[in-house]
Amino acid sequence: MFPIFSKSKRPTYTAAIIGLGRIGYSLALDKKREQPASHTAALAENDRIKLIAGCDTDLSRAEEWHTANYPLPAYLNTANLFARHKPDIVTVAVNEDNHLKVALEAISAKPKLLILEKPVALCVKDALLIKDEAEKNGVPILINHERRFAEDYAIARMYMKKIGEIQSVNALLSSSLKVYDKAEESTGNYSLIHDGTHLVDIVQFLLEELLDEDETKKEEVAQSGLLSKAQKTLRRPILQKPTVRGIWKDENGSVRNLTAVFETSVCPLVTIGLSGRSNYFGFDIDIRGTQGRILIGNGYLNVFKSAPSTLYTGFKSLSPDSAVKMPQQTLYFSNMVQNAVDFLDGKASLKSTLQNGIDALSILEEIKNMIS
Question: Among 108, 53, 139, which Cα is nearest to 343's?
Fold first, then answer.
């Protein structure tokens, strides 16, 4: 257990970032995004964290980051970084194809916490290697499934039990990126793994609210790492055994559309849809209960409840719940970093664990194996 510090004795935690690209740094320059939108900006804004170094194999990125965050050093390899610094927090924000290599390098430095960008790795096998090394070295890992930290999704999750029994969940990711391309297996440059991990993880997050007390206790034990090796092997995510429909391939054989259908113990119908032929980026979830409905996605949150109808005598219709509003800021990145601080203070558990990330990856891999 980590010690719980008094307010007057709260320590400052040092942090270093490996990977200084979009999510590591440059999204902080996007004026349309809610800020902070990068690991650099989110770590720098927290008064409990002292950012001490960056690292990227791309010289131009390293130089740009160093100039913007002068006099902090930027290294071109992790060997030089860890030879000179022993950060409490290491953030790994490299491309998916380098997650395994760089995560293992970071774990070997034995930080107090590793923040790892999603997805955990390109495949479950690699993710389990990361998990094994993390457990051997006693390094906790927080996965940046950012919507688990967002205020709007926290509201949606709390509202789940207010709309009666959940009848269906329909989640859809729309973009122009190929859903799956066998030629990109070694890079992960397709939406099923790149953004699909967000979609399946947030559906899991919302459905977790519906688990009964016994199931919740089992989940808490699983996340705490107290299960035996045999029990861990048997543990499965809520979403499993999908039926995959609506597969559409382009002229090159790349998958551009699919829908995975699940039956679960807490909801009889869950659909995960991915489109790779949309001329826009969309992230949309529609949750229908016996007493209401929740619609949530990028930039919106709408909640409806059953009420006497204004359209039909003797009937009820769905009416907007004016008490529930979209927060002005979702604080998705700020809350993630604060969760890291609270965890190191011994005040909170991690809200997005390595096991959560492995669960999401296993769901996606099961879908991929059915279409590849």
Answer: 139
